[in-house]
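S.,

As promised, the zinc ion run. Input:
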Amino acid sequence: MTTSTYSTLSSLGGFPFPVFVSRGSEERGRSIATRAADAIDWLGQVTGKRRRPTLVVADEQDWPSVCEVPIYGMMFSVPDKLGTSPTPAAWWSTYAGALRPHLSDPIRARLGAAFGEPPDYTGIADLIITHEATHLFHEIHPVTWASEFPADWVMELFANLGMHGYLATRDPDGLHLLAAMAEATLEAGHQIWDLQELARMGDSMQASVTNYVWYEFRLIRLAAQLWEAGGDDVLRDYQRLLGHPDLTHGQIVERLFRLEPAVAGAISRWPDP
Ligand SMILES: [Zn+2]
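Predicted complex:
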């Protein structure tokens, strides 16, 4: 999509890359763009790469004509472009609702403390742009969208590692939101999801959005463990060790073990925690 594709959107100045926002959502767009710019700056410093994507923040009405992903509010990263929405997608509350019957009182209370009652998922949804920004720092083939990683889940763990690293370093206030949802995800167990094998993560989006989100939150927890083990170095080491498309599952686990044995163990036991 070229810049003229966004003629129905407002163009926001003052950012190191083009930002287009649905009319009426300029304040929300400015807030999201500020975090995206800071994350891209941090990721650039850690990786030594420079990225200048176009950022689109589209409301429900504009979404279908300016976004590459059909589901409203499903944040995305494609070559040179990031997209998200000013309001959180409906699947946030669908996902939390699917977990809720399987949660203990303390974990349910923790979700309530994190998101309020009735819950507001704006804060957590806004953090995910930093996950999408991290996708700009690995290869994305322009036709197949393949990366240098040997499986979808390995690529998604990299994006979650970048998100966690950025937030822990520069923007830690939101980390408790991710942790609350990851904790609830773990406690609810995996039996409630149709697809559970790591190799099916890429397919799960077609099966059900919330099934896909389950994979992400399991990986978000492992990303936190990886970051705590190695900090800045772990992001570079992860890409150097795991950015090889032909690695077998056994080789992936062996290389993860070098980064953090606990994460290699969790991958070996998957879907058990
Ligand atoms: Zn991703």
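Residues 131, 135, 156, 159 surround zinc ion (CB under 6 Å). The first strand starts at residue 10 and ends at 12.

- D.
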